[in-house]
Amino acid sequence: MPPASFHAAARTLTRRIAGFWMIVLALGLTLVGVVLSLQQARTLVVRLMAPAELRAAHLAETARRIFHEELAAALDAAARDATSNPDDSPAGTFPFPAWLDAAYVWDGKNLAPLPGFAAGSRNRPWEGSLPDRLRPVVKTPSPPDPWIVRVENEKGPYWFALRRLSPLQPHAPDRLLVLHLDPERLQENLIAPLLPSGDMLEIAETDADSPWSQRLFPPLQSRVIRPTSAYAAEQRRTVFRLVAVQLALPALALLMLLAAMAILVRTARREVALAEMKANFVADVSHELKTPLALIHLFAETLQSGKIQSEEKKREYYEVILRECSRLTAMIENILDFSRIDAGRKEYRPEPIDIARLVRETYETYTARLDHEGFEHRFTAEEGLPPVAADAGAIKQAIINLLDNAVKYSDEEKSLHVELRRDVRRGRRGVLISIHDRGIGIRPEDRARIFDGFYRAPDERVRARGGAGLGLRLVRHIVECHGGALDVESRLVKGSTFRIFLPAAEVGAAGSDRTGPPAAPPREADRPNQQETQHGSNPDRRG
What we know:
The structure is a single chain. With 543 residues, the chain is α+β, with helices and mostly antiparallel strands. It folds into 2 domains: 1-116 and 126-227, no CATH class; 348-535, Heat Shock Protein 90 (2-Layer Sandwich). It is built from 9 helices and 18 strands. A hairpin with a 2-residue loop joins β3 and β4. The longest helix is centred in the first third of the chain and has 81 residues, at 3-83.
């Protein structure tokens, strides 16, 4: 691989690696920000939901304590009613809790309603099957006092509070005090009053624990006390606002950091590219100056030595010296003009000129070199082209630069065509100057940059032909300063076509110059005859 290609590949690889690590760094910082955000949000949620969690735990414990106190009191009162003599004291003096649905005494065979308890007339589907379901429970050794059991029935589960009663007669079987607990009435009369209207908590039916919820006691263990949906939504909104505020500045700082990194990397790349182009420019200019100076020195020494006696040979040597001096002059003019453009000191003095005549004269001064290089070339121009307001010297310099490029980048098929015709661009009529060649062409990836200063395509075919990378930059500047447009059409190995459009200038009644009004492009049948100058044996090779 040639050194230039190797260095270009190395630079490309370095840029890609730098871009890859920038992306990795950005993704890493973003991931860190997301993790910190989630952690911050989790901490805030826990902090904001802590009061609701503590209140739910407190209410669940309070409800459990009240339930067991009221249940113990109800069992004691029911036991007194079941064991007291009806003639001694009136029954049912204790106000049983509203969540008790019924009270019974079971002697192992019969289930009798408690005399002092107002059982009411409610339909109780479990009464018939309750004795059979209580027998296994009675056999339980040393059950707790009280113990709460769940009895399954085809109608559903039922909850009872049981307590053993001492037998009335010696050797009589133990009796069992049975209190039916109604979960719905228990929730309505015991739990609901603990939750005032508009409270942050609610009772919900659930089979699974949820965050910040507290499961209740039997027979309400299928229910939980938890924060209301409205309260949880409000806390989520609060968390979102707090997290957004707390992360706004870090996110902004992260974006600014990434933007600054991108700007720094881009600036560094530009500086490196500019330094590299300037270094290449110095080397290319040195080479471009050295070659004609060497030729001038060689031919001048030969003429001075007196070895050349033929007048024809002397004229040939003089022509070479003059041609190389012209090359040096043009190169130095390009460098000086580029310096003036870069410093903003380049000025043009436009005036109405016959553009066809100017381009023809420039072309004719260049024909000697074209003939010397073996080019087949021709010049064609429509008759009656409108005048153009332009700086004649600048336009001539632009044409010479394009002709130089056509000669420099042509290989075996050496053909050149300079063409002038009317054209309309964006509603403005003017003159289109086209310079066609059949050279090596321009790669698609280089076309957007060939008009940049110091730019030299990283192509060995281009590098081998020398040049300073200033000519096309000057052409574009000249054309744009004259209100025109410059474009290129090229195919590899097939050649290139550079087109310069210059708007026409019209002379008003007072003799002042102004840009002409928009005009429709002339039809093909209305075009005037072309003036054509041909050189070479086969001017129509383009086809």
